């Protein structure tokens, strides 16, 4: 699946990501990199991207990573998300790198690192579980 195809799927499925301008930079084999452009509406006091925007970016990044393992089939939903804010992310743009760590029949475990586009160190570390929806 191309980054453009995944971006279109993401924008249809999560219109908020479209309004924020989130795009898929690259994605394959259970890994996806997404970019959140700078936007003053997403800032909190201190001139850094807000927690809700960062958590939203993490969630859609993991979804895109999952879609690379299911040929684009949407068969799982977020169950838990643990977010560790390590340092201020800055005003953006931000890049999120999500990867599927373990995919089982019923649960998927993933990790997302988020940081300023030019930063070497991540600002946010996320772990997440997704539940695979059984076909009925």
Features:
136 residues, alpha+beta, Thiol Ester Dehydrase, Chain A, two-stranded antiparallel sheet, 40% strand, globular
How many independent structural domains? Answer: 1
**Distance from first to last alpha carbon:** 27 Å
Q: For the residues shown, what is the average pLDDT? A: 95
Oligomer: single chain
The shape, in one word, is globular
Alpha carbon gyration radius = 14 Å
> What is the helix fraction of residues, given as a range?
25-40%
Broad structural category: alpha+beta
Name of the level-1 CATH class: Alpha Beta
Largest sheet: 6 strands, antiparallel
The total beta strand count reads: 8
Beta fraction: 35-45%
What is the strand arrangement across the widest sheet? 1-2-6-7-8-5
Could you say what the CATH topology is called?
Thiol Ester Dehydrase, Chain A
Strand and helix order: HHEEEEHEEEE
CATH architecture term:
Roll
Written description of the protein model:
The chain has 136 residues and is α+β, with helices and mostly antiparallel strands. The chain has one domain: Thiol Ester Dehydrase, Chain A (Roll), CATH 3.10.129.10. 25% of the residues lie in helices and 40% in strands. It is built from three helices and eight strands, in the order ααββββαββββ. A six-stranded antiparallel sheet has the order 1-2-6-7-8-5. Strand 6 (94-103) and strand 7 form a beta hairpin. The chain starts with a helix and ends with a strand. The mean pLDDT is 95.
């Amino acid at each position: 699946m191309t980054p453009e195809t995944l971006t279109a799927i993401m924008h249809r499925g999560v219109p908020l990501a479209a309004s924020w301008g989130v795009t898929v930079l690259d994605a394959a084999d259970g890994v996806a990199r997404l970019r959140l452009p700078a936007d003053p509406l997403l800032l909190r006091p201190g001139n850094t991207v807000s927690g809700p925007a960062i958590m939203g970016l993490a969630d859609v990044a993991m979804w895109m990573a999952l879609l690379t393992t299911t040929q684009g089939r949407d068969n799982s939903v977020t169950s838990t998300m643990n977010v560790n804010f390590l340092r201020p992310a800055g005003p953006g743009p931000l890049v999120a790198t999500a990867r599927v760590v373990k995919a089982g029949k019923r649960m998927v475990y993933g990790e997302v690192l988020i940081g300023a586009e030019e930063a070497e160190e991540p600002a946010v570390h996320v772990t997440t579980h997704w539940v695979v929806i059984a076909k009925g």
